[in-house]
Amino acid sequence: MELESVKTDLDEQLKESNKTREELDQRVIELREKYYHQHKEKFKLLDDLCTAYYVATYKEKKDRIYEQVKDVVSQLSSENGQNLGVEDLANNYLDNIIINLRKDVPGQKDSQYQLFAYLVVGISPKSISALMNTSVSAIYTRIHRLKESILAIEPKNQERYLPFL
User: Fold this and answer.
1) Digit-coded pLDDT (tens) for 55-67
2) Which of 26, 82, 97, 136 can pair with 129 through a Cys bridge, CB separation 3.0 to 4.6 Å?
C-alpha cells in the first residue's frame, strides 16, 4: 500500500511539473513573439523609406531618401555594438527560423534566405526590391519559387514558413 501511495504522489508531482513546464514554454514563446513584434516596428521605418525611394521621381529626392535608408540600415545592423542583421534578428526571436529553413530547404542561394528573412521582419516586396537592387516582379518570382520549395518539404515544417510568404 505504501509503495502505491508513493507512486501516486510521484505521478501527481510529475504531472504538476509537466504542467508548469508547458506553461513556462508557452510564456517564453509569447515573450519571443512580443519582442519580435517590437523589433518589427523598427523595420517598418525602413520599409516606408524604401517605398518612398522606389516611387520618388526626382533624382535629388531619391538621393536624399537613399541616404536616409542607408542610415536606418546602419542603425539596424549595429545595435549595442553587435552586428545584428536581419537573419540574426529573425533567428533570435523566432526560434532559429532562418537556420531551420536552411536545413529544411537546402541548396538555395544565400539571397533566397535573405529574401525570406526580409519577409519575416515585415519588409514589403517593393522595399525588398530596392534593398536587393532588383525589380519588384523578380522579387515576386523569387517568393513564388521559395514557396514551391517549401511546399516540397514535410507539411509540419511547411506551417512554420508559409505564413511569412
Assistant:
1) 777 777 777 777 7
2) 136
* Entry pTM: 0.61
* Dihedral angle of Cα 143, 35, 157, 21, to the nearest 10 degrees: 180
Q: What is the dihedral of CA 137, 141, 143, 147, to 10 degrees?
A: 150
Burial letters 109-131, b for 16+ CB under 10 A, else e: eeebbbbbbbbbbbbbbbbbbbb
Three-state secondary-structure class, residue 79: strand
Task: Write phi, then psi, for 46 (nearest 5 degrees).
Answer: -60, -45
pLDDT digits (tens, 9 = 90+) for 43-53: 777 777 777 77
Parse the chain into domains and list their residue ranges. 2-164
Q: Which residue has the cell 531551420?
A: 100
